[in-house]
């Protein structure tokens, strides 16, 4: 375990940034002041040091060269440019204040002078995070807008200064108002930076209001404008802020990919300015918190170390305090409470709810957590009460994530004090707050990922109920976190009612149900039969993930049974505690969680003198959630109508041709009941136009291309339409309203990406969402010949009167008992039911 110490982070405060001006080719500044001002505007955002130097030269030239009015204006512009480079540091402020002491030329109107000076003074306050003072100055400057006939000056004042400051004051309607008012000036200004900055400020405003989905769209608009007009720093900032939104949406994979793109920009800076260093430090800190959320503690430590170093270099006290507060959380996760307390005490001293509520709240929440972990429960309660009072006083900054963390921490404290009913109330309040926030999210991709930050609440709640010896209540909580989005799409609920009877489902299904919840501190299994529900404690999630990885390797490499030691170990861990409750030949329904979704339970190896796979003693199907299981016994299934698509014309030359063996099997089995789409007719458009909702069985035989970054953008490769479109996407399938009892996705990796809480999300998930009751899909790539053989046997057993799950089980047994066969040939396909 990593144990880097506080001393390794507390880098020397004497380190300074070397901001050497960037090398530029020699240029001859225009002689006229308007031309020089335009030149400065052009280089301001690409080479701030050069811009500042040009402005300084303009007012230090001999008096005959530049008029007094322009000399004065260039002094103020120089002050502005110095503040551009401040990067959170106050080091530039004295020089700026000195520049403001210059006498105002008599030909400058008092209104213009007042507006320009107030704007610079406001910027000084803005750099120092003195937001109320900044707004007073900007309000004064705004009164002279009509007196300053410069579109760029007005655009900068309204967008970069006033709107930014109002955002920090949480006056969000005013932010939107001033951004709208700036529209004419940003469009008229030749410097398109201010126009590109508008969606960045808008996105930050959305982010501050916790509307992360809206913020992503705004940052994407900013990135687009910044790309067109070539503002690399703005591109990096928009991407970095987008990454932060992905983090807040629980889309941690996408967040890290986005931070990688910002790093590409910062790594190529030879002599970064203070502002550029400040921004790099902010993005590094956001990367660190993403690593921390993912449990990648070594990576988080390294990124926090870099962020702290940069904060010290640029003198950014606000970010320094924030990273210290978050580092405390890392120390706590590592069990280094001594370092955590020392660091958090400094964070508490350096943060103020009035100026940086998130950092101050994080420090107080950590103080409560540390007190609880050291058994000081009364102190923890007092810290939480104080934090709640502060949140009540700052309702506009009441981050839902912070609120549910407060409720969850209080639940842990109350549990420690043996106040069981109060602890349950706090756990429920935490989940209610979290799902209230989730309700504002529209896009399915974010509603999926938003569950990731909530897993810890479910895991703690289940552990609490387990400690109270309430297995059924613990199972209800675990099930309420399974397949939440799928349930919503089916207009159902994954929240079991108080009267929900799991044993009734097991009785109707004539099955033993195994439900799981995995967690870092320890996992759980519930066994539900027609008569009872029992709970068992399992190893931590990390241990299970490693066992599954080592078990799947020999399967994918087609190694023999004798080489799969993890198959035995996994059976002992996942099934062994309940083996006596599962008679040989049972129907078993598995509701997996976390890494268990990547495992085919049929490939586990029970103890015995002669090793064999569990498929030989149990018929296993997979369900996304207990609460979504239809209370109806699966019996023989003879489809009234069949829609089959396959033997497509391969639009992608990298993919091998697929034959029509599976379609021939269907034709032989069901004859005139089949509607076939094949060859040039097997296009996405023709499949959708065939009204799939009318068929009781649907069979798709095609290549599948999973999309790990966006699983609902996974697709089947069909024949190209007239417009050359050949992709049948998961999100297109999800929009259907299917009545099919069975859908077979005969393709490689047609299950999807493992999304915590939701299971495997992709093509199979989309078909379940569309209304199918049973979906057969594959976990990994498998040869077309092996697939055709399995499918042929499956239809033979289905036509003989077996249920879909039993028919697939029988087909697998036919192959598994063939000498020399391996699970690679038969275990890829699973039945997913509801």
Label this structure with key terms:
single chain, 834 residues, alpha/beta, six-stranded mixed β-sheet, five-stranded mixed β-sheet
Provide a descriptive summary of the structure in words.
With 834 residues, the protein is of the alpha/beta class. Mean pLDDT is 89; it is low at 1-26. The strands form four sheets. Strands 7-6-8-12-15-16 form a six-stranded mixed sheet, with helices on both faces. A five-stranded mixed sheet has the order 3-2-1-4-5. A hairpin with a 4-residue loop joins strand 2 and strand 3. The longest helix is centred in the middle third of the chain and has 21 residues, at 274-294. The chain is globular. The protein contains 36 helices and 16 strands. Helix 13 (232-248) packs antiparallel against helix 14.
Briefly, what is this?
By secondary structure, this protein is an alpha/beta fold.
Summarize model confidence as the mean pLDDT: 89
Bin the strand percentage: 5-15%
Helical fraction: 40-55%
Q: N- to C-terminal separation?
A: 42 Å
What is the spatial order of strands in the main beta sheet? 7-6-8-12-15-16
User: Which consecutive residue ranges, at least 5 long each, have pLDDT under 50?
Assistant: 1-26
The major beta sheet can be summarized as: 6 strands, mixed
How many helical elements? 36
What integer value in Å does the Rg equal? Answer: 32 Å
| Shape type | globular
> Which structural class best describes the helix and strand composition?
alpha/beta
What is the β-strand count?
Answer: 16
Task: Please outline the helices and strands.
Blueprint: H1 6-9, H2 33-43, H3 48-60, H4 68-84, H5 93-99, H6 110-127, H7 131-142, H8 151-168, H9 172-181, H10 183-188, H11 193-208, H12 212-228, H13 232-248, H14 252-267, H15 274-294, H16 297-314, H17 317-334, H18 337-350, H19 357-373, H20 377-393, H21 400-416, H22 420-438, H23 444-449, H24 455-467, H25 471-480, H26 484-489, H27 502-509, E1 512-517, E2 523-528, E3 533-538, H28 541-556, H29 565-574, E4 586-591, E5 618-622, E6 642-648, H30 661-670, E7 674-679, H31 684-689, E8 697-701, E9 703-705, E10 715-717, E11 727-729, H32 730-734, E12 742-746, E13 753-755, E14 759-761, H33 763-770, E15 774-778, H34 784-799, H35 804-816, H36 823-826, E16 829-833
Parallel strand pairs: 1-4, 4-5, 6-7, 6-8, 8-12, 12-15
Antiparallel strand pairs: 1-2, 2-3, 9-10, 10-11, 13-14, 15-16
Helix pairs in contact: 2-3, 3-4, 4-5, 4-6, 6-7, 7-8, 8-9, 8-11, 9-11, 11-12, 11-13, 12-13, 13-14, 13-15, 14-15, 15-16, 15-17, 16-17, 17-18, 17-19, 18-19, 19-20, 19-21, 20-21, 21-22, 24-25, 28-29, 30-34, 34-35
């Amino acid at each position: 375990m990593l144990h880097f110490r506080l001393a390794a982070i507390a880098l020397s405060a004497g380190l300074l940034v070397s901001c050497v001006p960037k090398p530029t080719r020699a240029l001859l500044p225009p002689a006229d002041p308007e031309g020089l001002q335009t030149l400065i505007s052009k280089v301001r955002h690409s080479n701030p040091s050069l811009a500042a130097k040009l402005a300084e030269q303009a007012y230090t030239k001999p008096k005959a060269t530049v008029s007094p009015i322009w000399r004065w204006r260039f002094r103020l512009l120089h002050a502005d440019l110095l503040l551009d480079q401040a990067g959170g540091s106050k080091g530039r402020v004295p020089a700026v204040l000195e520049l403001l002491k210059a006498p105002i030329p008599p030909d400058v109107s008092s209104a213009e002078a007042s507006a320009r000076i107030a704007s610079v003074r406001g910027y000084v306050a803005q750099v120092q995070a003195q937001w109320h003072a900044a707004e007073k100055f900007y309000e004064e400057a705004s009164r002279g807008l009509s007196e300053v006939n410069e579109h760029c000056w007005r655009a900068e004042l309204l967008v970069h200064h006033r709107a930014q400051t109002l955002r920090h004051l949480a006056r969000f309607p005013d932010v939107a108002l001033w951004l709208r008012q700036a529209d004419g000036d940003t469009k008229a200004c030749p410097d398109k930076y201010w126009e590109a900055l508008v969606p960045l400020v808008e996105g930050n405003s959305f982010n501050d209001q916790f509307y992360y989905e809206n913020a992503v769209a705004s940052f994407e608009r900013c990135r687009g404008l910044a790309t067109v007009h070539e503002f690399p720093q703005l591109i990096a900032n928009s991407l970095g802020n987008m990454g932060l939104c992905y983090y807040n949406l629980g889309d941690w994979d996408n967040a890290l990919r986005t931070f990688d793109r910002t790093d590409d920009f910062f790594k190529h800076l030879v002599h970064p300015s203070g502002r550029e260093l400040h921004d790099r430090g902010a993005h590094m800190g956001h990367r660190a918190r993403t690593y921390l959320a993912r449990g990648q503690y070594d990576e988080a430590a390294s990124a926090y170390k870099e962020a702290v170093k940069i904060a010290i270099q640029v003198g950014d006290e606000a970010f320094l305090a924030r990273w210290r507060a978050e580092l405390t959380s890392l120390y706590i996760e590592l069990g280094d409470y001594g370092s955590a307390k020392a660091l958090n005490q400094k964070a508490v001293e350096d943060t103020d709810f009035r100026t940086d509520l998130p950092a101050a709240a994080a420090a107080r929440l950590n103080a409560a957590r540390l007190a609880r972990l050291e058994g000081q429960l009364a102190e923890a309660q007092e810290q939480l009460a104080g934090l709640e009072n502060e949140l009540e006083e700052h309702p506009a900054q009441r981050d839902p994530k912070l609120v549910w963390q407060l409720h969850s921490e209080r639940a842990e404290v109350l549990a420690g004090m043996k106040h069981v009913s109060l602890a349950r109330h706090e756990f429920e309040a935490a989940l209610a707050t979290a799902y209230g926030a989730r309700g504002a999210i529209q896009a399915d991709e974010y509603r999926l990922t938003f569950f990731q930050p909530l897993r810890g609440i479910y895991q703690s709640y289940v552990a609490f109920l387990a400690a109270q010896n309430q297995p059924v209540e613990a199972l209800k909580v675990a099930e309420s976190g399974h397949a939440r989005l799928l349930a919503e799409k089916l207009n159902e609920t994954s929240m079991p009612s108080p009267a929900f009877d799991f044993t009734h489902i097991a009785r109707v299904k004539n099955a033993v149900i195994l439900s799981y919840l995995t967690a870092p501190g320890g996992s759980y299994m519930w066994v539900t039969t027609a008569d009872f529900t029992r709970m068992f404690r399992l190893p931590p999630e990390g241990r299970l993930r490693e066992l599954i990885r080592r078990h799947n390797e020999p399967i994918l490499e087609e190694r023999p049974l004798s080489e799969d030691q993890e198959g035995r170990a996994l059976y002992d861990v996942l099934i062994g505690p309940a083996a006596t409750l599962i008679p040989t030949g049972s129907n078993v329904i598995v509701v997996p969680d976390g890494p268990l979704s990547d495992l085919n339970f049929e490939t586990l190896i029970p103890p015995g003198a002669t090793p064999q796979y569990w498929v030989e003693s149990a018929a296993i199907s997979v369900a996304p959630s207990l609460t979504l299981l239809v209370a109806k016994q699966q019996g023989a299934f003879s489809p009234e109508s069949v829609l089959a698509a396959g033997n497509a014309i391969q639009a992608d030359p990298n993919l091998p041709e697929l034959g029509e063996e599976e379609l021939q099997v269907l034709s032989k089995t069901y004859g005139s009941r089949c509607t076939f789409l094949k060859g040039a007719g097997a296009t996405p458009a023709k499949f959708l136009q065939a009204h799939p909702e009318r068929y009781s069985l649907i069979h798709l035989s095609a290549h599948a291309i999973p999309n790990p970054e966006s699983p609902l953008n996974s697709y089947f490769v069909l024949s190209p339409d007239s417009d050359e479109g050949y992709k049948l996407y998961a999100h297109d399938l999800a929009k259907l309203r299917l009545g099919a009892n069975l859908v077979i996705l005969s393709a490689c990796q047609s299950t999807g990406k493992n999304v915590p809480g939701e299971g495997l999300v992709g093509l199979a998930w989309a078909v379940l969402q569309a209304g199918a009751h049973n979906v057969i899909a594959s976990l990994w790539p498998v040869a077309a010949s092996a697939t055709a053989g399995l499918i042929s046997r499956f239809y033979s057993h289905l036509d003989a009167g077996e249920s879909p799950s039993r028919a697939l089980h029988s087909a697998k047994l036919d192959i598994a008992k063939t000498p020399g066969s391996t699970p690679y040939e038969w275990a890829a396909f699973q039945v997913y039911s509801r």
